[in-house]
Amino acid sequence: MKYRYTKYTGDELDDLDLEDLVAKLSDLLLSSGFGHPHGIDEADRTMQALHDAILDALFNGGVLPEETVERLLGDPADGDPEDARAALEDLIRQIIDRMAEQGYITVPPDLEAERRQRQGRGGAGPDRPDLTFEVTDKTLDFLGYRALRDLLGSLGKSSYGRHDTRAQATGVETIGAPKPYEFGDTLNLDPAATLLAAAEREARSGSPGPSQLRGLHVTYEDLMVAQGEYQSSCATVLMLDCSHSMILYGEDRFTPAKRVALALAQLIRTQYPGDALKVVLFHDSAEEVPLAELGRVRVGPYYTNTREGLRLSRRLLDRARKDMRQIIMITDGKPSALTQPDGRVYKNAFGLDPFIVAETLAEVAACRKSGILINTFMLARDYDLVSFVRRVADICKGKAYFTTPYTLGQYVLMDYMDKKTKTIH
Question: What superfamily in CATH does domain 141-163+232-417 come from?
């Protein structure tokens, strides 16, 4: 048997960093319906949209070196434009296939194209507009990691510990001098300090020394415990406003909010494993959304039922046995809807409706009574919204932040990581 050896030229896409490409496509993969007036169109999840986004990333995003692109496509001045276009389409098709193979997207089979091919009428290319793709959990997890890395990099820090309190308490990590044991302290005894205290007590009382006894008599007053910083656990509900205004006025505000939620979930999983995070969407009503489905939710033609979102968040936090319980509310609109006892939704988008505001503030007071802190991040500076948020902050002793979609992540992560609690005895 004879073998013929040829020069290995490598795969055409060896220079392609799929992770970098997925990060460049994050606006498309986390799209919230910004391109549609009602936010419910699926046009931005089509293969054509993916095709166009990859094309833009190739020529404007720098995911492939220019020399690689020229080698793959050739010099347009020396060849047939149709051949160059065919080569480009084939390159994009290979990239889409590789994304599917690596588990970043799932592409349903094009049964109609297969049927046409079998009937001898030809098929459609990878950019058929009526075919859609699905974003996988792997992609959402990766985008959360990238968002967290970018946000922490902009803050100038790379890692954080758990939530530290201002004062010292017993039972976690020894950092200070031992103290006498008091009823209620964790019995984290310091043996050396306890024996020393017993010896000093017997010396002061004139009792026989250790040489005349078989050992020291340790009493209750001799017990010494080690001090440490009390590091609390936290239960958080992230309330996201997905009303219609989140994609109006020429700005997509909901997609950055989803990025923040994914980054916060990644932060908790890696740096605060004892914490809990839940996500609640509020619009005409409110519902809890699993973190795995967060990247797929979209804005719709809804009003803003803030009271229902707070009520659901309070129920979720009441079940959590954590030292800290808080609500992070991200919104750009004033309350404009209210669920009535009979289940009907009362809506009024004109100004601050006194009935809606009163019921919403009553729910804020109920959260405060349950020991739940509410911090609000405002993506707009409408006078009515500012007035309402200030009243919320006054009632629950929380904070209100004026921010933009570009700085939202930094504000949310800084507030979360700097959170402190009072000493718990």
Answer: von Willebrand factor, type A domain (3.40.50.410)
**Summary mean pLDDT of the chain:** 77
- What residue segments make up the domains of the chain, in order of their start? 18-135, 141-163+232-417, 177-226
69: left (phi over 0), alpha (psi -120 to 50) or beta: alpha
- 65 by Cβ neighbours in 10 Å (0-12 / 13-18 / 19+) ranks as exposed
CA–CA distances in Å: residue 86 to residues 65, 79, 80, 121: 20, 12, 10, 20
Q: Report the candidate in 278, 270, 319, 323 with the shortest Cα–Cα distance to residue 164.
A: 323
Residue whose pair of structure tokens reads 């080569």 in the numeric block: 87
Enter the tokens of residue 422: 């009072």
pLDDT(297) > 90: no
| Residue 313: pLDDT over 70 | yes
Q: What span, in angstroms and rounded, lies between the C-alpha atoms of 297 and 30?
A: 9
Residue 337: φ, ψ to 5°? -150, 155
Q: Which of 327, 418, 336 is nearest to 377 (CA)?
A: 327
- What's the average model confidence in pLDDT over 256-284? 87
Could you tell me the pLDDT band of residue 159, with boundaries at 50, 70 and 90? very low
Cα–Cα distance list, 401 to 168, 378, 412, 415 (Å) = 30, 6, 9, 10
Lowest-pLDDT choice from 87-96, 337-346, 351-360, 370-379 = 87-96
- Check residue 229 and give its pLDDT: 54
| pLDDT given for residue 43 in this prediction | 57
Q: How far apart are CA 420 and CA 392, in angstroms?
A: 20
Closest to 52 measured CA to CA, from 147, 111, 133, 123: 133
Q: Is 248 exposed, middle or buried (0-12, 13-18, 19+ CB in 10 A)?
A: middle
Structure tokens at 314: 């309070």
3-state secondary structure 248-313: CCCCCCHHHHHHHHHHHHHHHHHHCCCCEEEEEEECCCEEEECHHHHHHCCCCCCCCCHHHHHHHH
- Cα separation, 67 vs 44, in Å, equals 30
* Model confidence at 130: pLDDT above 70: no
Q: Please report which confidence band the pLDDT of residue 424 belongs to, taking 50, 70 and 90 as the band edges.
A: very low
CA dist., res. 254 & res. 386, Å (int) = 19
The pLDDT score that the predictor gives to residue 60 is 81
Split at pLDDT 50, 70, 90, the class of 345 is: very high
Residue 362 DSSP class = H
